Amino acid sequence: MRVNREKIGSASKAIRTGDVLTITLERRVVVLEVAGLGTRRGPAPEAQLLYKDLTPPPAPRADVPSAPAQRDPGSGRPTKRDRRRMDAFHSGLDDPE
After folding, report:
1. Helix/strand/coil (H, E, C) string of 43-83?
2. pLDDT tens digit sequence for 16-56
3. According to the UniProt record, where is the region Disordered (predicted)?
4. Domain spans in the chain, listed from the N-terminal domain onward
5. Rounded to an integer, what distance in angstroms lies between the CA atom of residue 29 and that of residue 23?
6. Structure confidence at residue 13 (pLDDT)
7. 31 CB contacts (<8 Å, ≥6 apart)?
8. Are 52 and 35 in contact (CB under 8 A)?
9. Does this model's pTM top 0.85?
10. What is the distance, to the nearest Å, from the Cα of residue 26 to the centroid of all Cα atoms in its chain?
11. Is the distance from CB of 6 to CB of 20 less than 8 angstroms?
């Protein structure tokens, strides 16, 4: 987390009106400007009035649809029919069909 472009080491850093907070969340960066300080812990709509979101819009992604996952015939888990044939083969019996 950064306050006015300076990396802070502790969460107890005092902030003032006009400070710019830069927060890294997972794979995105959120930039907020403090518009006011609350006197109490209140509801979300009230808290949203205390900051301005300066986060730049995300870069446009090239939405290329990926090909559906295809499996080669015979790969993966055997079907019930395949298991019956294998059991018959291992026990020395003829084809059950």
Report:
1. CHHHHHCCEEECCCCCCCCCCCCCCCCCCCCCCCCCCHHHH
2. 999 999 999 888 899 999 999 998 998 999 999 999 999 98
3. 38-97
4. 2-53
5. 6
6. 86
7. 20, 21, 22, 23, 53, 54, 55, 56
8. yes
9. no
10. 7
11. no
Q: Which residue has the tokens 């709509």?
A: 45
Q: How far apart are CA 53 and CA 35, in angstroms?
A: 10
Chain mean pLDDT for the chain: 86
6-31 in b/e form (b: 16+ CB < 10 A) is eeeeeeeeeeeeeeebbeeeeeeeee
Strand partners, 2: 7, 22
Q: Dihedral sign, CA of 30, 34, 39, 44?
A: negative
Residue 62 one-letter amino acid = A
